[in-house]
Amino acid sequence: MGHLSLPSKRNPKQWKLLDLVSAAFFGLVVLFLFLVFTPFGDSLAASGRQALLLSSSDPRQRHRLVELIEAGQHPQPIEACSAEEVDHMPCEDPRRNSQLSREMNFYRERQCPIPDETPLCLIPPPNGYRVPVRWPDSLHKIWHANMPHNKIAERKGHQGWMKEDGEYFIFPGGGTMFPEGAIPYIEKLGQYIPIRNGGLRTALDMGCGVASWGGYLMKEGLLPLSFAPRDSHKSQIQFALERGIPAFVAMLGTRRLPFPAFSFDLVHCSRCLIPFTAYNATYFIEVDRLLRPGGYLVISGPPVQWAKQDKEWADLQGVARALCYELIAVDGNTVIWKKPSGDSCLPSQNEFGLHLCDESVDPSSAWYYKLEKCVTPQSSIKGKYDVGGIPSWPDRLNKAPARAALMKSGIDLFEADTRRWARRVAYYKNSLNVKLGTPAVRNVMDMNAFFGGFAAALASDPVWVMNVVPARKPITLDVIFDRGLIGVYHDWCEPFSTYPRTYDLIHVSGIESLVKAPGSGKNRCSLVDLMVEMDRILRPEGTVVIRDSPEAIERVARIANAVRWTATIHEKEQESHGSQKILVATKNFWTLTSASH
Fold it and tell me: What is its main location (predicted)?
């Protein structure tokens, strides 16, 4: 008969170990239930997600959190960046760029991080920030607390750039080459240039300081666009935009500036210190590409009749002669040239080795496009686009320019686009109560501008519009400039070259097209990252207007909550075809203190 085997008794040490394992297991179960079914657990989970949002160490975690936000499954708003980031520009960050090559100022050009290397957070305003002073008062004064950077005032106050005055910075209107003020300087230029007859409209101000020249030029009916790098003055473009003057951050270094050929009627440099004749006159050649035939080039300051710069001044005159520019005047340290119409006068031999570009060089490609060492031939673009060949302002605004005809059915598309946006802007103002046309809106951006119809419909309002033509879409920016408006090329999968809090209103039609690859329909980047960037450049209490398909607007609305916008969704105007909807959002005015509660 078999025997039943009974387990032998365990010794006390074995029982003690079993008790500890069991206790640990049941403790973990209790903790799990506590975290799942209590508010503390929700709060802890949200905090964990926010910590991951600010972490860029693991791209997979970042991608997962972006997916949660897009799906509306992230209950808390995106966390604020640190106080040190209040003026952060991702693509012009000296912490990243200072280690790069100094050759041709490469390190001062756009150098953008990939999204996986970028913390996902919202840029806060500085302590004491206020809603900006309204235009036109902002031309003369801004709140000191909005950008408490005294460096320019201390260094340039004696030249009339700006001064600190109590709770304001004030702007007397001066500059290094016009310390008595921009108004008498512009009047002096007007002795040689037909500023007031409408023949000139678009102007480029290179190395602009705080952009007083551009600010006062607008009173003459011209539309300037000023640029300067983020350099030792740090915030000169930030001051320009806070004043309500069109500007953006850029450096003329190794690449073309982000404009099409023959865009500007007037190009101006006041002590911009661009070495125009260096590298076989490469920088002068780029200015020539941008200047419309029949337009004017003004250079004030070195090397024009400047002590100890005789060779540089002689070289500058030599390049201008080689390009057959007409010398209009040399007045003190200011020289004025007029660009000729036609290619016939470029000599076959010259001391700078200048020659015409061949047909393989696209004259209007300018997004991360390396500078060419050849002259853009005017014959490379068909049609009339020279000063005097196009209508004067304001007639040129709504007349289809010759360059529109280069696109299939371009003239018909232009005219239909102009009518369409006149209707839509009226609907925005009258039915959606968008603050266009009021003192609350001065700096406006259209992120997907096409022919600039949205901006054209605002021509009578006290605003200026930065028309952005996405770099991967049809090149229509030349038409925008031909009609007397301004803008740039840009790829919205990268941050824009401006400071935080610089636009009162941002408009975009077809926002999802900005993140998708043309043709394939696949996303190149995240809608979340795009809207975080929009939030960075939008002022507190600023407005966003987005129109797209109902499905796209639903996705945008979910993300709007995460970026702390208050949004409403509206039906489109009855006259428009298709199934679009319109989202109108306001950026809430929060601070680091309020965001922490």
Answer: membrane
Provide the token pair at 291.
């200047």
Residues 6+ apart with CB under 8 A from 453: 417, 418, 420, 421, 422
Mean pLDDT of 307-331: 96
Burial of 321 (0-12, 13-18, 19+ CB in 10 A): middle
Q: pTM of the prediction?
A: 0.90
The answer to whether the bond into 113 is cis (omega within 30° of 0) is no
Planar angle of CA 493, 498, 500, nearest 5 degrees: 100
Give the separation between CA 46 and CA 41, rounded to whole angstroms. Answer: 9
Residue 126 token pair: 């500085």
CA–CA gap between residue 133 and residue 124 (Å, rounded): 19
**φ and ψ of 184, to 5 deg:** -65, -30
The partner residues of 446 in beta bridges, in order of sequence, read: 467, 507
How far is it, in rounded angstroms, from Cα 429 to Cα 279? Answer: 51
Average pLDDT over residues 150-166: 83
Q: Are 515 and 493 in contact (CB under 8 A)?
A: yes
CA distance 357 to 561: 51
Residue 386, pLDDT > 90, answer: yes
- Given the structure tokens 């077809």, which residue do they identify? 510
- What distance lies between CA 586 and its chain's CA centroid? 20
Is 165 in contact with 138 (CB distance < 8 Å)? Answer: no
Q: Per-residue pLDDT averaged across 14-26, rounded?
A: 52
Mean pLDDT, all residues of the chain? 89
Supply the DSSP string of 58-100, one letter for each residue. -HHHHHHHHHHHHTT---SPPPBPPGGGTT--GGG-HHHHTTS
- Please give the backbone phi and psi of residue 164, each rounded to the nearest 5 degrees, phi first: -85, 135
Residue 219 carries which side chain, given as an amino acid letter?
A: K
Tell me the C-alpha distance between 470 and 247, whole Å.
18
Helical segments of 467-579, H only: 477-482, 527-537, 550-562
What is the rounded distance in angstroms from the CA atom of residue 451 to the CA atom of residue 4?
94
Q: What one-letter code names the amino acid at 334? A: T
Tokens in use for 396? 């040129």
- Residue pair 385/365 in contact (Cβ under 8 Å)? The answer is no
Q: For residues 592 and 258, what is the distance between their CA atoms, to the nearest angstrom? A: 35
pLDDT tens track for 457-479: 999 999 999 999 999 999 999 99
Beta strands across the sheet bearing 538-548: 487-490, 464-470, 443-446, 503-509, 538-548, 581-587, 565-571
